[in-house]
Every structure is written in structure tokens, then in C-alpha cells.
DNA sequence: GTCAAACCCGTAGTTTAGCTCCGTGGTCAT
DNA sequence: ATGACCACGGAGCTAAACTACGGGTTTGAC
């Protein structure tokens, strides 16, 4: 449930940056397959990995957990 | 680095709730030792585990990654 | 000053999942 | 019909998430 939403959030942020899965993988330094797994919610990145995703997507880590219509405080 | 700050954040939230490590462990359903490891930044909870921590501490997951003086948007 | 609550910390162990590589096959546009 | 992008399966390695046990330190109350 959580990792599913996290994946969707990451996919959305990636597209907003105009990046392909492969490009994102290269920036982060991980495999393309892993990006796919994460975005589909099959796997979640480790906490250490979250930092890499946040950096690559140019957001704070907490923004990765800021979903849909929820207004950030 | 990240897990260190995460641990401090969790410890702070726990104390704000007036909970002991043991009490928190019982609510979450994990061992007391693990709480200790997490708060000291030795280990980080898995993404699935984060939900448990957030629930027990009565915050959103993203609030676990909202640190120090950083102003939330 | 002693007793206990709360916590730190080491060691050692099991199991999960984070993460990889390789390959296939589907879709869509060009 | 070729290439870019992605979903998906199988198969695997390894680090780390998580546990139990045991001892040791600080703190505060009495």
C-alpha cells in the first residue's frame, strides 16, 4: 500500500523531470529494472536509497511521501 | 546520515507522546532492541516498517522525514 | 546508597527484501 | 520494421532488517 503510492509518486516526479527510467537509473546509479520494480510498487527502496531518488528527482525525501491531494503543512 | 536524523526524529516524537521505547515497541509490534537501533541510527526501518512507526507516533509518514528547522511547505 | 526504570551496547543468529543481470514481449510512433 | 520505452518473469547474491539474550550505564526516587 505504502510502496505502491511511493512508486506512483516517484513515477510522476520522474515524468515531470522529463526523464526516462533508464536516465533516472543512470543518475541514481542503479539498474533500470529496479526503477521499474519500485515504480510498480513491487519493491521499495531502502531508506538510504530514498536519498538517491530524492536527489535525482530534485526534491526532499519527505516530498516522496507527499501524496495526491494531501495538502502539505 | 539520513537514518541518523530519522532516528532522532523518531525519538523526539516518541518522547512527545510520553512513550517509553518498550511501550512503543509493543504498539508497533517489534522488539525493544530494534527501537533502540533505529533511534541511534544504526538501523533504519524498512519502508513497510515506516508506516508502523508513523501510526504509532500518530503522524504521517512524511512527517518522519521532516527535520529540525526545515520549514514545511 | 540502593533499588529500579529506562536505555545503551555487544554478539550472534535467521530471514527477508533490496538489488542485480538476462531475456522476452508488448505498445506506440515514426 | 525499427527503435524507444516499459512491463514482466526467473534466478540469484548479499546486505540489512529484525530477533533473542545478557551485561552494563545513567538517572531519579525513596
What key attributes describe this structure?
homodimer, 73 residues, mainly alpha, 434 Repressor (Amino-terminal Domain), DNA-binding
Shape of chain A: globular
Assembly level: homodimer
Annotated CATH homologous superfamily of chain A:
lambda repressor-like DNA-binding domains
Strand-pairing-aware structural class of chain A: mainly alpha
The CATH architecture classification of chain A is Orthogonal Bundle
Number of strands of chain A: 0
Low-confidence stretches of chain A: none
How many structurally independent domains of chain A? 1
Count of alpha/pi helices of chain A: 4
Main β-sheet of chain A: number of strands, strand sense, barrel status? none
Question: Could you tell me which chain pair has the largest interface and how many residues each side has?
Answer: A-B, 20 and 20 residues
- SSE order of chain A, as H and E? HHHH
What would the CATH topology of chain A be? 434 Repressor (Amino-terminal Domain)
Mean pLDDT of chain A: 90
End-to-end distance of chain A: 23 Å
Radius of gyration of chain A: 11 Å
Q: In what range is the share of β-strand residues of chain A?
A: under 5%
Structural account:
2 copies of one chain form a homodimer. With 73 residues, chain A is mainly α. Chain A has a single domain (2-65), classed as 434 Repressor (Amino-terminal Domain) (Orthogonal Bundle). The first copy, chain A, has 4 helices and no strands. In chain A, helix 2 (21-28) crosses helix 3. The longest helix of chain A has 15 residues, at 2-16. Chain A is globular. The termini of chain A are far apart. The mean pLDDT of chain A is 90. The A-B interface holds A 1-3, 6, 44-48, 50-51, 60-63, 65-66, 70, 72-73 and B 1-3, 6, 44-48, 50-51, 60-63, 65-66, 70, 72-73. Chain B binds a DNA duplex (30 and 30 nucleotides) through helix 3.
